[in-house]
Amino acid sequence: MNLLVIGLGSMGKRRIRCLKRLGVERIIAYDPRADRRAEAAAAYGIATFADWAEAAAAPADAWIVSTPPDTHVEYGLRAVARGVSFFCEANVTDPRADQLIERLDASGLVGAPSCTMRYYAGPKRIKALVEAGAIGRPLAFTYQCGQYLPDWHPWESYKDFYVSKRATGACREIVPFELAWIVDLLGPVARLSCLKDKVGDLDCDIDDVYQLLLRFERGAVSGHLMVDVLARPAVRLFRLCGADGTVEWDQAAGRVRLWTAATGAWEAFDLSLGAHVEPGYLHAEEPYVEETADFIAALRGEKPWAYDFREDGRMLALLTRAEASARQGRHL
After folding, report:
1. Of 54, 66, 221, 273, which one is least surrounded by beta carbons within 10 A?
2. Phi and psi for 232 in degrees, rounded to 5?
3. In this predicted model, what pLDDT tens digit does every residue of 196-232 receive, in sequence order?
4. What was the pLDDT predicted at 275?
5. Confidence (pTM)
6. Average model confidence (pLDDT) across the chain
7. Which fold has domain 2-113?
8. In this structure, are strands 138-146 and 189-197 parallel, antiparallel, or unpaired?
């Protein structure tokens, strides 16, 4: 299998490592930056391209798009035009997404937007417990996901990549990234409201905190999601109350805890955070390896990709509604 990785920033290099751990060795890559090409060639022993036309013409069974999120649909359209399946990282809204969906439907190709959080050990354990009825009917949750923006890529300034730009700002990207697993757990959102703002001292024009109040269609569950780029240390802390108990997830502690009315006691589940954390990265590689493996399996026809552009579009539509709510000051 031949794979073309497009973009050799943080995520592009991570996907190359994932592919190599999965035994994929025939990897080529494209990036316009000479320093990134040189780094990837030296670190991973792969051929790289500076010219997009040459890269696109190179034989490839699939593309992995690890460019800024506002370019993913463009590369997806290019892939479909060449009859090539593709995977892409987390997206932001793009008016051509419906066009991409139509072309993917007609082509029979695999178009796979990322849903990495569904592969994290915490969300997987929570979903298993909720589906088993461990806490009874879910009622309400609170969840904070935050990491100080300069710590995202400590090897470079946050002002030098897409997270510091308003259209692709860090919080704006992470809201749908997190909603992908929350909606998978609790079902479609009926109503929401949002407050977003810039309250910190980051030297860029982005909102650094989004707070969403969510009401779900199924069972009238309600919840509070806060995404920020201010938290030091980084945090992912989730607590869901049910009719018969409570489940908590603390990513930093590597633990899910369950309390049930039947036992009146807490039960702890230690989570495997992964065997390897790359220097300079916060999170282990394993969820990304598992996600990449599922994409390879989809390419081979072994299993369908479980999160398509229609579902991704629904998460992005929630982001659009949240931002409209913040502007209008009302529930939507």
Report:
1. 54
2. -135, 110
3. 999 999 999 999 999 999 999 988 899 999 999 999 9
4. 62
5. 0.94
6. 96
7. Rossmann fold (3.40.50)
8. unpaired
Residues 6+ apart with CB under 8 A from 295: 62, 64, 87, 110, 112, 305
8 A C-beta contact, residue 237 and residue 249: yes
- The domains of the chain are located at 2-113, 117-283+307-328
Cα(180)–Cα(113) distance, rounded to whole angstroms?
11
- Residue 315 in contact with residue 183, Cβ under 8 Å? yes
149 SS3 class: helix
Which amino acid would we find at residue 229?
V
Residue 49: phi and psi, rounded to 5, are -125, 140
The whole-angstrom separation of Cα 14 and Cα 281 is: 10
- For residue 220, what pLDDT is reported? 86
Give every CB contact of residue 312 below 8 A, 6+ residues apart in sequence. 91, 113, 115, 176, 180
Token couple for 242: 């049910």
The answer to whether 192 touches 215, Cβ cutoff 8 Å, is yes
